[in-house]
């Protein structure tokens, strides 16, 4: 790893329009904030929250960045807006959702940012793709990604297959 840079783990999701295309576009844009090192396969998952919406396409990416966590979070929110995200209802359908899951060496809790991201320890659509690309990562207060992924209920989660 280059000095002054650290690894950040970003969850990607979309369920409107062409979700895989939305994720690919987001990955291109993430390259503006650092180097995209690895990307998981794309997974299909049922929506969390309201069920009156399409399934999600989810993935996890590792980026190496010099941005501080708060600045990276703001960049991710700007990328969502740039891709057409409009926040209408909690856990509602979206063109793009980017979650800052974890930044190596950073733990924080605040109104604008909490790291590690709350809830990741029980979300199969985060843990399974993450374990595919970085199983040995230790999430502060939770444990190793591979162990968390093995313990989570992944029923209903599968690889995204274009129709």
Account of the 3D structure:
There is one protein chain. This protein is α+β, with helices and mostly antiparallel strands and 163 residues long. The protein has one domain (6-159): 7,8-Dihydro-6-hydroxymethylpterin-pyrophosphokinase HPPK (Alpha-Beta Plaits). Helix content is 26%, strand content 27%. The protein has helices at 19-30, 69-82, 124-133, 145-151, and strands spanning 6-14, 35-39, 43-45, 56-65, 97-103, 108-109, 114-115, 138-139, 143-144, 158-159. Strands 1, 2, 3, 4, 5 and 10 form a 6-stranded antiparallel β-sheet that branches. Strands 6-7 form a two-stranded antiparallel sheet. A hairpin with a 4-residue loop joins strand 6 and strand 7 (114-115). Helix 3 packs across helix 4. It is globular, with a radius of gyration of 15 Å.
Write a compact overview of the structure shown:
26% of the residues lie in helices and 27% in strands. With 163 residues, the protein is of the alpha+beta class. A hairpin with a 3-residue loop joins strand 8 and strand 9 (143-144).
State the domain count.
Answer: 1
The CATH class assignment is Alpha Beta
Strand content: 25-35%
Could you please say which CATH topology applies here? Answer: Alpha-Beta Plaits
Give the class from helix and strand content and strand pairing: alpha+beta
What's the N-to-C terminus distance?
A: 39 Å
Radius of gyration: 15 Å
Instruction: Please bin the fraction of helical residues.
Output: 25-40%
In the CATH hierarchy, the architecture is 2-Layer Sandwich
Arithmetic mean of pLDDT: 92
Number of strands: 10
**How many H/I helices?**
4
Shape: globular
CATH superfamily: 7,8-Dihydro-6-hydroxymethylpterin-pyrophosphokinase HPPK
Q: Which regions contain 5 or more consecutive residues with pLDDT less than 50? A: none
Biggest β-sheet, characterized? 6 strands, antiparallel
């Amino acid at each position: 790893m280059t000095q002054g840079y650290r690894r950040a783990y970003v969850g990607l999701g979309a369920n409107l329009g062409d979700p895989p295309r939305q994720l690919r576009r987001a990955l291109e844009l993430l390259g503006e904030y650092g180097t995209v090192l690895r990307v998981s396969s794309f997974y299909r998952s049922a929506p969390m929250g309201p069920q009156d919406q399409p399934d999600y396409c989810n993935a996890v990416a590792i980026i190496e960045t010099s941005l501080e966590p708060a600045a990276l979070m703001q960049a991710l929110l700007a990328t969502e807006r740039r891709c057409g995200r409009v926040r209408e209802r909690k856990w509602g359908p979206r063109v793009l959702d980017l979650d800052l899951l974890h930044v190596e060496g950073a733990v924080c809790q605040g109104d604008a940012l909490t790291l590690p991201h709350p809830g990741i320890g029980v979300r199969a659509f985060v843990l399974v793709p993450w374990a595919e690309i970085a199983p040995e990562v230790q999430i502060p207060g939770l444990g190793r990604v591979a162990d968390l992924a093995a313990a989570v209920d992944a029923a209903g989660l599968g690889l995204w297959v274009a129709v």
